[in-house]
Amino acid sequence: MLFCPTCANLLVISSDTGYNKWACNTCPYEFPITKQMTTRTRLKRKEVDDVLGGDEAWAHADQTQASCDKCNHDRAYFYQLQIRSADEPMTTFYRCTNCTHQWREN
């Protein structure tokens, strides 16, 4: 993108006179295109944040009695989050202390 040096509006490509030029729609400024004008900008991708905390969420989680479906162990870590609207109950996330299988309720 190029901008007009006199009025700061965006320049558009025009070929009214038979040759390509950058032209301002507001003022009479014109800039002839004599060579190929390209630039390429690589954007840096943002790292995705783990909104539920990942493995660190389980570091200080409390334990409770909950039966694991995978290994039938009777202890699990748990924490609760409000992931739906305020009038819905909280969702409880569990992680087995024996096999690290994860599940949720609600």
From TrEMBL:
Name this polypeptide is given: DNA-directed RNA polymerase subunit
Organism: Agaricus bisporus var. burnettii
Keyword vocabulary terms for this entry: DNA-directed RNA polymerase, Metal-binding, Nucleus, Transcription, Transcription regulation, Zinc, Zinc-finger
Record has Acetylation as a keyword: no
Listed GO biological process terms: regulation of DNA-templated transcription; termination of RNA polymerase III transcription
Lineage: Eukaryota, Fungi, Dikarya, Basidiomycota, Agaricomycotina
PROSITE patterns assigned: ZF_TFIIS_1, ZF_TFIIS_2
Family: Belongs to the archaeal rpoM/eukaryotic RPA12/RPB9/RPC11 RNA polymerase family.
Annotated Zn(2+) 1 binding sites: C4, C7, C24, C27
